[in-house]
Amino acid sequence: MRILLLAALLAGCAPTVEPVSTSIAPRGPILAVFAHPDDELVVSPAIARAIRDGIPVTMVFATSGDQGPGVTAMAKGAELAAIREKEAMCSAEALGVSDVRFLRLGDGTLADRPQDAASPALRLGAELRAVLASRRYATIITWGPDGGYGHGDHRMVSAMTTQVVQAMGADRPELLYGGIAKGTLPPVEEMQRWATTDPALLTVQAAYDESDLAAVRKAAQCHVTQFDAATRAELPDVFHASIWSGAAHFRPAFAKAGR
């Protein structure tokens, strides 16, 4: 996830959390599957809320973001990946998550010839099955099929997570796609290519409070290689004032049995 924000959006907007009238939070334990360090920020209020409620959360990063580029002058490769993993751990700590796993599949490679036997996509599927075999998760959250703004790694994480879960039995975890309700994108040019979802489909909402938003602000500060100081400071409150508005929103991937 890489965006630029405008401080002007926050003019006159008090960073307070208004109660959400209805909230059906994800059940735990929760497995959160992302493509890169910093992707977690999009749904970070839900993660902070779950931890506050005592729900265990595991965060899995398919790649370590070794291709950047972000705002750093560092060369692409292993050194950048190591730093981004540290940033992810910093963010996880801010949100209260202690179980973080890095699959190190290669930034920008997940959609490369996914049909091949040794493809990063099929390796991702195998890794996810292993994670799911290690614990009984009630909920999985990940990117929707749009990948946020269409990033190939995001789309493949969504597709492979969906493929793994749909093959499970009736007691499979509930799979939730993070979504942005239509009409809530902030008036920032760089965000206009992000996909939106009909609000009627976003039936799961994880309401958050001031303490959760404070954790999100702290998490955003961790991603120094990806955002400049102004963006790190503004991002949580811009999202709070527009996209989130008191809750992180999710769309169930599958209809309930019998429908």
UniProtKB/TrEMBL annotation:
GO terms for molecular function: N-acetylglucosaminylinositol deacetylase activity. It comes from Tsuneonella dongtanensis. It comes from the Bacteria. The lineage of its organism: Bacteria, Pseudomonadati, Pseudomonadota, Alphaproteobacteria, Sphingomonadales. Gene3D superfamilies: LmbE-like. Its EC number is 3.5.1.103. InterPro entries: GlcNAc_PI_deacetylase-related, LmbE-like_dom_sf. This is 1D-myo-inositol 2-acetamido-2-deoxy-alpha-D-glucopyranoside deacetylase. Keywords: Hydrolase.
